[in-house]
Amino acid sequence: MTSLSDLPTQYLITPEPPHGEPLANFVADLDRSLAAGIRLVQLRAKSVTPPQYVWLAEQVLCCCRRHGARLLLNAPSSVAIALHADGVHLTSKTLMACKTRPMPPGFLVSVACHDAHQIRHASQVGADLITLSPVLPTKTHTTATPLGWARFRELAALTSLPAYALGGMSPDTLDEAIKSGANGIAAIRSLWAGIVERS
Question: Residue 43's beta-bridge partner residues?
């Protein structure tokens, strides 16, 4: 069974695999992130084909297992079940289309939320954790209006689900996130070894 009691404070969302680079390089970068202490990973790779995603997910899952990390797939529930991943992450659009919990017991369901309506729906369909974004300005969603910490605090208080602050997050913002009611932070750039090492 999957336990919520030991969810880590840092939740890595993978960047897109670089176009033209071997996918093995991506896996090597992930391995370095895991070696640095990451224990919860969402594989988000929308630019690859479905067969490439399955291959990548298998490699990433092996990598996560070696480090004792849990892997959520940003993919259909059937893929996560077939590959024996730890669960799924749903976009806010997919979340709002759900009428019931999309995974059997024992799997984690992470969902993306941006407002109070989505947070309430996440609770109704039996999600296990949420990402709440964007908290601060972010390079990946430059047109989105940041929530700010005060609004994040208000929204996180609407649910008992563990909430991860997303958007402009880094290890430097972790204390502020926890003070604001978050379980921790979710991030791409600041938690991904390949980007950190090259910047």
Answer: 73
Please give the torsion angle defined by the CA atoms of residues 82, 84, 89 and 93, in that order, rounded to the nearest 10 degrees. 10
Asked if omega into 134 is within 30° of 0 (cis), the reply is yes
Tally of structural domains, the chain? 1
Give the 3-state secondary structure of residue 107. coil
Note whether residue 37 is domain-resident: yes
- What SS3 class is residue 76? coil
Q: What is the CATH number of the domain that holds 95?
A: 3.20.20.70
Strands (E), the chain: 10-13, 40-43, 70-73, 87-90, 108-113, 129-132, 163-166, 184-187
Is the CB of residue 34 less than 8 Å from the CB of residue 62? no
Helix, strand and coil content of the chain, in percent to the nearest 5, comes to 40, 15, 45
76 closest CA partner among 58, 91, 55, 63: 91
Residue range 68-108, pLDDT digits in tens = 999 999 999 999 999 999 999 999 999 999 999 999 999 99
In a domain, residue 3? The reply is no
Q: Is residue 5 part of a domain?
A: no
Does 114 map to a domain? yes
